[in-house]
Write a structure and sequence with these properties.
Blueprint lengths: L2 E3 L6 E3 L2 E3 L10 H14 L3 E3 L8 H9 L8 E6 L15 H15 L4 E6 L8 H13 L3 E7 L3 H14 L4 E7 L11 H7 L3 E5 L16 H17 L3 H9 L6 E6 L3 H8 L8 H11 L7 H5 L20
Parallel strand pairs: 3-4, 3-10, 4-5, 5-6, 6-7, 7-8, 8-9, 9-10
Antiparallel strand pairs: 1-2
Helix pairs in contact: 1-9, 2-3, 4-5, 7-8, 7-10
Keywords: Oxidoreductase
GO molecular function: oxidoreductase activity
InterPro entries: AKR (IPR020471), AKR_Detox_Biosynth (IPR050523), NAD(P)_OxRdtase_dom_sf (IPR036812), NADP_OxRdtase_dom (IPR023210)
C-alpha cells in the first residue's frame, strides 16, 4: 500500500480507502468487521469511512468497538447531513445545529475525542454555504474534527465553498466524495477537474457500480452487458478478477482518486485488495472506455475541438508551463 497527502494537507492517507457502510445488521457482523479491518490494516490501509446513518448508527458503534485501543493509527472519517429523526426538521441538513448534534453523537458512538475527516454527506441547498463552512471551521478550531470534506455536491458549490474559506481564513474542503466507475463517469465533466484544480483528494464510492462490474449480476441493460463483457475480457488477459480490473480503471485517470472498498466479507476485501497488483495498459483502458460509450459533452468537447482561429496560430507553440 502506498500513501498520498489528503488534499493540500500533510495528512498521509492510503491509496485505497475502506468503506464501513455494510457494518451492522444485514451486512458484516461485528466479528466479520474486525476481520475486515485487521486485513485492511495488515495491508497498510489506514482510512476507514463511515457515516452517522449507516445501518442506523450501527456502523459507527461497531467501528468504535473494533478500533478501541488502536484508533489513533487510523484516519477515521464519518459524515453528517442525512436525517437522524425524520419527524424533526432540524435533525438533517448542513446547518450549525445539525452539525453540532450529529458530531456529538458520532463522537460517542466511535468512542473517540476527534474525527479525522468530517464530510458533509450531501449538498443542502437550504443552508447558506458560509454557515456550513464557518460551523465546520469552528469544530476544527475546537479540536473535534481535523479535516473536512464534502460528498455528492455540484462542482460550483464546492468551488464556491473553498474560495470562501480561502478568503476568510476558514478550513477548506480537503476531500470530495463522489460515485465513480466505468458505468458512471459523470465526475469527469466538472467535478474531477475542479477537485484537481483545488488539489483535493477524491474518494470514489461505488467503484464496482454496486457489484454490477464484478459480473455477478444477471439482470443487465445492454450497455451494462457490453461493459461487463469488456471487463471480463481484460481480466482474462491479465489473470485478474473483474473486480480488480474495474477498480484499476478508476485509478487510471487521476492520482487524486482513491477508490472506497466496500466489503461485507473478508473474502471480498481480499479480492478487492488485489488491485494493488493490477496494472492496465493504455490500450486496455481505451478498450474499456470504448465499451462504456461516454462523452464529456459541452463545454469540454467543444473546447477540445476549438479551431486554431480561436486563439491564433501562434498559440500552438505556447509553453503551458510559462506563466510570465
Amino acid at each position: 500500500m502506498q500513501y498520498r497527502l489528503l488534499g493540500r494537507t500533510g495528512l498521509r492517507v492510503s491509496e485505497l480507502f475502506l468503506g464501513a457502510m455494510s457494518f451492522g445488521d444485514g451486512g458484516a457482523s461485528p466479528a466479520e468487521a474486525r476481520r475486515i479491518i485487521d486485513l485492511y490494516d495488515d495491508t497498510g490501509g489506514n482510512v476507514i469511512d463511515t457515516a452517522n446513518v449507516y445501518r442506523d448508527g450501527q456502523s459507527e458503534s461497531i467501528l468504535g468497538d473494533v478500533l478501541h485501543g488502536r484508533r489513533d493509527r487510523f484516519v477515521l472519517a464519518t459524515k453528517y447531513t442525512l436525517s437522524r429523526d425524520i419527524t424533526d426538521p432540524n435533525a438533517a441538513g448542513n446547518h450549525r445545529k445539525s452539525l453540532t448534534l450529529s458530531l456529538e453523537q458520532s463522537l460517542k458512538r466511535l468512542r473517540t475525542d476527534y474525527i479525522d475527516i468530517y464530510w458533509a454527506h450531501l449538498w443542502d441547498r437550504h443552508t447558506p454555504v458560509d454557515e456550513t463552512m464557518r460551523a465546520l471551521d469552528d469544530a476544527v478550531r475546537a479540536g473535534k474534527i481535523l479535516y473536512v470534506g464534502i460528498s455528492d455536491a455540484p462542482a460550483w458549490v464546492v468551488a464556491q465553498a473553498n474560495t470562501l474559506a480561502h478568503w476568510r481564513g476558514w478550513t477548506p474542503f480537503a476531500g470530495l466524495q463522489v460515485p465513480y466507475n466505468l458505468l458512471q463517469r459523470d465526475i469527469e465533466r466538472e467535478l474531477l477537474p475542479m477537485a484537481e484544480s483545488f488539489e483535493m483528494t477524491v474518494a470514489a464510492w461505488s467503484p464496482l457500480a454496486h457489484g454490477v462490474l464484478t459480473g455477478r449480476s444477471c439482470d443487465l441493460t445492454p450497455q451494462q452487458h457490453t461493459v461487463v463483457a469488456a471487463v471480463r475480457e481484460v481480466a482474462d488477459e491479465i489473470g485478474a478478477t473483474p473486480a480488480q480490473v474495474a477498480l484499476a480503471w478508476t485509478r487510471s485517470h487521476s492520482a487524486a482518486v482513491h477508490p472506497i472498498l466496500g466489503a461485507s466479507t473478508v473474502e471480498q476485501l481480499a479480492d478487492n485488495l488485489g488491485v494493488l497488483d493490477t496494472t492496465l495498459s493504455e490500450e486496455q483502458v481505451r478498450r474499456l472506455e470504448a465499451a462504456a460509450d461516454f462523452t464529456l459533452g459541452f463545454p469540454s468537447d467543444f473546447l477540445a475541438q476549438s479551431h486554431p482561429g480561436a486563439f491564433g496560430t501562434a498559440s500552438n507553440g505556447l509553453d503551458r508551463g510559462a506563466r510570465r
